[in-house]
Amino acid sequence: MEPRLNGKGLIISLIFFLLKFSTAIEIPPSVQQVPTIIKQSKVQVAFPFDEYFQIECEAKGNPEPTFTWTKDGNPFHFTDHRIITSNNSGTFRIPNEGHISHFQGKYRCFASNKLGIAMSEEIEFIVPSVPKFPKEKIDPLEVEEGDPIVLPCNPPKGLPPLHIYWMNIELEHIEQDERVYMSQKGDLYFANVEEKDSRNDYCCFAAFPRLRTIVQKMPMKLTVNSLKHANDSSSSTEIGSKANSIKQRKPKLLLPPTESGSESSITILKGETLLLECFAEGLPTPQVDWNKIGGDLPKGRETKENYGKTLKIENVSYQDKGNYRCTASNFLGTATHDFHVIVEEPPRWTKKPQSAVYSTGSNGILLCEAEGEPQPTIKWRVNGSPIDNHPFAGDVVFPREISFTNLQPNHTAVYQCEASNVHGTILASANVDVVDVRPLIQTKDGENYATVVGYSAFLHCEFFASPEAVVSWQKVEEAKPLEGRRYHVYDNGTLQINRTTEEDAGSYSCWVENAIGKTAVTANLDIRNATQLRVSPKNPRIPKLHMLELHCESKCDLHLKHSLKLSWSKDGEAFEINGTEDGRIIIDGANLTISNVTLEDQGIYCCSALTALDSAADITQVTVLEYIVEFEGNKEDPGRWEELTRVQGKKTTVILPLAPFVRYQFRVIAVNEVGRSQPSQPSDHHETPPAAPDRNPQNIRVQASQPKEMIIKWEPLKSMEQNGPGLEYRVTWKPQGAPVEWEEETVTNHTLRVMTPAVYAPYDVKVQAINQLGSGPAPQSVTLYSGEDYPDTAPVIHGVDVINSTLVKVTWSTIPKDRVHGRLKGYQINWWKTKSLLDGRTHPKEVNVLRFSGQRNSGMVPSLDAFSEFHLTVLAYNSKGAGPESEPYIFQTPEGVPEQPTFLKVIKVDKDTATLSWGLPKKLNGNLTGYLLQYQIINDTYEIGELNDINITTPSKPSWHLSNLNATTKYKFYLRACTSRGCGKPITEESSTLGEGSKGIGKISEGVNLTQKTHPIEVFEPGAEHIVRLMTKNWGDNDSIFQDVIETRGREYAGLYDDISTQGWFIGLMCAIALLTLVLLTVCFVKRNRGGKYSVKEKEDLHPDPEIQSVKDETFGEYSDSDEKPLKGSLRSLNRDMQPTESADSLVEYGEGDHALFNEDGSFIGAYAGSKEKGSVESNGSSTATFPLRA
C-alpha cells in the first residue's frame, strides 16, 4: 500500500500540522448550516467597450441557499429580459445592449435557507455617461500688460481619474512657469500677463483615461494690450521701464481665492497624498515658500512642485495634521495663507466577529470593534435585518459585542456587523450554528501510514462534533489508551508519535465521543529503516590537472528502494543530472568524476539521498593544491621576484632550469582556490658559473638609411641571457651572391652603420653574441638592403578611357626596376579640374591624389565633375618617396544627368488645379534640356494611383500649372531635371486639392519655433495679406511630439524669380483691367442717376462689416453643431502635410485607468482611432474623442 505521509523530517512535519490545526473548524456539508457568502463582486463599471457586465454572488449552505437582490435598498427583480441568470447561483449578467443607465445603483445580495440569511457587502454598479463641456459662448478677454488674469476650465464631471491640459488648437502645450500656473481644478492663472500671452486659441482639454475619452472646451481669446504707448516720444528702454513701474505691485493671493480669507481647512484621508497650492499675482512675479507652523515638513515625503506653488506630502499620517503656511513674496511685500490640515480615516477592523458552532444550552459572545476618524458607528444585523427588529431571547446587545446564553437550535442565524463613518462602510459576518450531532469522523477507516526509525509519525482522525468530543487513541492489540511523553493528541484528533521505533508498527484505533454518541476508525503504521550515506574518499587533497573520483555509498530500506534518488552538489549548488556539457564533470548515479582538476573545483561536495519518507546527506571537502617557485637575481631589475616554475600536487622537490652567471635566491608559494599563501622565507643565494652565450640576437633589421648606407640594428641580449662577462656582438656581411669575403666588425652596442657602393642592393648579414668564455651558436644569415633613393624617371601615360561622366580609367607604362632605386610601393595619380564645359569658367588648380599600391599599369579615377576638362599626371613612389611626374594628360568628361532640383513647392492649390515651383539643381552636369514632372494620387490607403508624366521642354521655366485634378484628393509630385544624357534623381512633394467651394490658397512650409517673437516668413508680394497657421508635422517623436509648419495665405501669388511688371503680357492685362473698370464705373453712375438701388445682399458683398470680417479672418476653421463628433486636431487643409500612413485627426491613446501614456510634461503619446467621420472642432460646446485601447 502507498504510504500517506511523505516524511521529510520532524521539523517540516511539525510546521505543516501546526498550520493545519490553526484553521477554523469547517462544518461538513452534510450537516445543516446557515448560508455563507463565498464570492462577491466589488465596484463594477460599465465600460462601453465591454461585451457584458457580471455582478457576482456565490454562497454555500445546507439546505442549498436561494438568492435575492436589492438595488438602492429596494427589492430588485430580474424583470428585464436582457438579464442572464445562473442556476443555483446569485450571479447575473447585464449584456452591453441598448440603454443600461437605469441599472446604475448599489446592489446587495442575500443568500437564504431555513436557518438564516447571509448578506453581501454593497456592490456599486456605475454606468458612466460621456463627459462633455456645456454649450456656451466665450467672450474674448482683454487685459493690459502686467495685469493678472484667470482662464477658467470648469471641466465636466466623469469617471475619475481626470487629467487636464491647456493647449492651443494645434495641440501644443501652453508653457507653464513661475508666472503661469494650472490649478488642481484646471483653471489657468497668470500672475502678470505679457504681450506674448496674446492668442485666440487657449483650449482646455479634459482627459478621462478609463473611458478612453478626451473633451475640449471652446477656444478662448486673450488680448494683451501693450503699455508701450505710455510715452510715444520716449525710447523703447524708457517705455519698458515706465510700463513696469506703473504695474509693479506686491503679491496678492489668487489661490486659495480671496473669499476663503486668510486661512482654510482641508481634510485628507490617512495614507493618501496631500496637495496644497498657492498662487499669487503681482509684479515682479512672486515666489512661493512653504512651512509648517510649530513643526517641520516631513522629510522624505514632501516635495515642492510647479515652481514651488504646490506642496505635496505622500502617504499622509496623523502626525501630518496641523497648520501649514504658504508665503508669496516679491521685493514690494508678502502675502500669506494658512491651511488647517485635518487627517481622517475610513473604518478598519480591529476585531471582527468570528463564526462558531455551538451546542444546545451553551453560551457565546460576538465581538465587533473598528477604528477610524471620525470614530465609526457600529450597527448589528441578524439575517440581514436590524437586530432591533428580530431580537433573540437571551441576547444581550452592546455596540461592540453580543453575548448569548442558553442557546437553542432556533437561535441559529447569520449576524452582520457594519462599521461606518463619513468615509465609508465595512461589513463582517459571523455564522452562529447551534448543532447537536454525534461525532462525524472525516478521515477514512483503515488508512495506512509509514515513517522511518527515529522520525515522528502522524496518524489522522479528523472529525466534527457538537457538543465537544473527547479523542483517545489505542493500539488495537492492547485495547488501552496510549500513555507517555512520546504520544500527543491534537485538538483535531491527529496522533503524533515522536522518535519512532520498530515496536511502534501496528494497528491503532481512534475513538471520538461526545454526549450524543461515539465513533471510531482504525489506522495502520509501518516503520522503515532510515537511509544512510557515506561519501569516499574523505577530504582528499588532489593535484591540479589530475582526475578526481568520488563515490556515494547508500543503504536504504527495501520498501523505499524504488523511491531513492541520489544527487550531487558543490558548495550548495546542485550539479546537472549528468554533469557538465563539456564532459569534464561526469555524474553516473553514485559516482562523480572530474577530469583535469582546476583550482575552481576545490570545495565541499555533498551527496544527497531522497526517499518517499526521509532524506540523508554526506559531505567531503576537496582541496586542490599547487606550488609556485619564484626567484630573484635579475641584474637589470634587482629585488623583483619572478615566477620560475609551478609544481602540482603533493610534490615537495623540483629540478629547476637555471641560467649561467646569475646569483639566484628562491622562495615557494602555495595556491588553492581561495588564493595564494604568504611566500616562504627566501633561500640562501646560489651563483651559477659563467658560460659562453647559448643564443644570438633576434630581430635583425635595417633602419631607414640614406642612399648607399645600411644602419643594422638588433634586439640586445638581456642580462639573464648573457651567460657571462664581456658581452659583444660580431657582425659580418657581404653583397648577396657575390664571390667575396665576409666583412666583419665587433661592437658592444646593438647598432652598426655600414657604407655600400650601390643603392638598394641586397646583402647577407649575420650577428653573433660572444663573451669572455666564447662565442654563441653559429648565426643564421638574413637578407638586408642598403638605403633607397627616389625614383628618377616618370611613367608614360598611354591614355585615359572615359567610362562615364564621373569615372575614367588611366593606363600607363611601368618604370624599369633599375630606375626605382628602392622597393616600389606603387603609383600615384594626380589630377585637377581646369574648366567647366558648361560655362567655360576656369577653375583654380586644386590637386587631387589617388595612390595604387603594387606593380600595376592602370587605375580608375572616380568622383569627377561631369562636363568638365581635367589635367592628369602619374608618378611612381617607393619607401623613400615619390619620383618625377609624367607630362600632364588632358581629357574631358561628357555630360551627365543633373542633380535633383534644390526645392519643389506647391505654391497654389484649388479644387482641381495646383501650381508648382522649383529651384535649379546645384550641379547641372551638362546643358539643361528640361524637366520631367510626374504625379499620382496617394490618398491615405495602401493603394496608389497611376503615375502621370509631363515633359517640360523649357529649362528656364521654374514653375508649372497642373489642371484637371480631382477635388479633395492627395497627390504626390516628382520632379527630375534632365540633360541630353537623361534625367536625374527626383525631388518630391505632397499636397491635397481643395473641396467644392473652397478658396484657393498659396502655401509655403517653413519650420517655426512658437517661442520666437518673429518668424522667417518670405513676403511674396509687398502689401500682401498673410495668415499664419501652425500645423502638426510629426506624430511619432515622444520628445517633441508637436512640431510646427507655417502656412501663409495671400490674395494672390506674385511669383518667385522674375519681376513680371516688365513683361508685355502683364502690361496688356493691366490695361484691359483698367478699361473694364472704367466701363463699370460709367454704368454704375448712369444707373444711380436714374434712381436705381442695390439689393441688401449686394451691399453686404460690396461693403462687408469690419467686425464680421475680422471674426472670419481669425476663425481657425468651420465648426459643427454636433456634440458627439470626435475631436479633430486641425482643419481639412492641414491634411496636406501629413504622411500617408499618419492620421490628421490623431490625438492620444489611453490605457485603461493608466496615466502612463502621457510624458512627464503631459504630452500625448500615440494616436487614437475613433469615429470614421472627419469633423472639425466644434463651436458650441465640447468635442469628444473616443478611441480603442491598444495592447
UniProtKB/TrEMBL annotation:
GO biological process, one term: cell differentiation
A Pfam family matched in the record: Ig_3
Keywords per UniProt: Cell adhesion, Cell membrane, Developmental protein, Differentiation, Disulfide bond, Extracellular matrix, Glycoprotein, Immunoglobulin domain, Membrane, Neurogenesis, Phosphoprotein, Repeat, Secreted, Signal, Transmembrane, Transmembrane helix
Ranges annotated as biased composition (Polar residues): 229-246, 1132-1144, 1177-1191
Domain Ig-like: 29-124, 128-223, 251-344, 347-433, 439-526, 531-623
Annotated localization: Cell membrane; Secreted, Extracellular space, Extracellular matrix
Basic and acidic residues composition-biased segments: 1097-1115
Any one of the GO CC terms: neuron projection
Domain Fibronectin type-III: 593-691, 696-789, 791-896, 900-997
Its membrane topology: Single-pass type I membrane protein
Transmembrane segments: 1065-1086
Signal peptide: 1-24
InterPro entries linked: FN3_dom (IPR003961), FN3_sf (IPR036116), Ig-like_dom (IPR007110), Ig-like_dom_sf (IPR036179), Ig-like_fold (IPR013783), Ig_I-set (IPR013098), Ig_sub (IPR003599), Ig_sub2 (IPR003598)
Chain residue ranges for the region called Disordered: 229-248, 675-698, 1097-1146, 1172-1191
Family membership noted in the UniProt record: Belongs to the immunoglobulin superfamily. L1/neurofascin/NgCAM family.
Assembly and interaction partners: May interact with L1CAM. May interact with ITGB1/ITGA1 heterodimer and ITGB1/ITGA2 heterodimer as well as with ANK3.
Name of the featured protein: Neural cell adhesion molecule L1-like protein
Organism of this sequence: Macaca fascicularis (Crab-eating macaque)
Protein encoded by which gene: CHL1
